């Protein structure tokens, strides 16, 4: 089991290392103009960009979109329930929600020092974790119109 965890951890950090420059150079340009209809109701995201790399186009981010509800009590360790309530207003999806609880163990000495340093730099995100973390952060290209039939949503 430890080998599987380490392989997954290495894969996750390879992705983070590859996109390290993007993570530090993202800026929020404006509130998104598009309102998207999903099963739970309507959501509005935000437009983000990458100022130091003009080859990256601006995208629209929908952050912290709930996809399921956490069960409590006796059903705590059971699969999550689908979201029951539909939003009555346009949901503001411009803020990333807190992360799920994570292991706070120091990085393995088998990782190169550069990888260990990146793990240590990102550990502050796990200071603000919560069990109710069943949310998604979605990124979509900005388009003038969105043409999808019901089967593609």
Automatic annotation (TrEMBL):
Pfam families with a match to the protein in the record: COesterase (PF00135)
Where does the record place the Carboxylesterase type B domain? 33-143
InterPro entries from the UniProt entry? AB_hydrolase_fold (IPR029058), CarbesteraseB (IPR002018), Carboxylesterase_B_CS (IPR019819), Neuroligin/BSAL (IPR051093)
Key words, A-Z: Signal
Coiled coil location: none
Cleaved signal peptide residues:
none
The family line of this record is: Belongs to the type-B carboxylesterase/lipase family.
Protein name per UniProt = Neuroligin-4, Y-linked
Origin organism is Magallana gigas (Pacific oyster)
Q: What is the taxonomic lineage of the source species?
A: Eukaryota, Metazoa, Spiralia, Lophotrochozoa, Mollusca
């Amino acid at each position: 089991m430890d080998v599987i965890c380490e392989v997954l951890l290495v894969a996750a950090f390879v992705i983070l290392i590859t996109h390290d420059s993007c993570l530090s150079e993202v800026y929020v340009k404006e509130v998104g103009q598009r309102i998207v209809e999903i099963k739970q109701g309507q959501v509005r995201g935000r437009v983000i960009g990458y100022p130091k790399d003009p080859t990256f186009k601006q995208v629209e981010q929908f952050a912290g979109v709930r996809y399921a509800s956490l069960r409590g009590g006796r059903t705590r360790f059971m699969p999550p329930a689908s979201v029951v309530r539909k939003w009555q207003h346009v949901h503001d999806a411009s803020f990333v929600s807190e992360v799920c609880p994570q292991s706070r163990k120091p990085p393995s000495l088998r990782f190169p020092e550069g990888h260990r340093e990146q793990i240590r730099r990102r550990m502050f995100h796990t200071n603000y974790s919560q069990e109710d973390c069943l949310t998604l952060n979605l990124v979509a290209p900005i388009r003038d119109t969105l043409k999808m039939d019901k089967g593609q949503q």
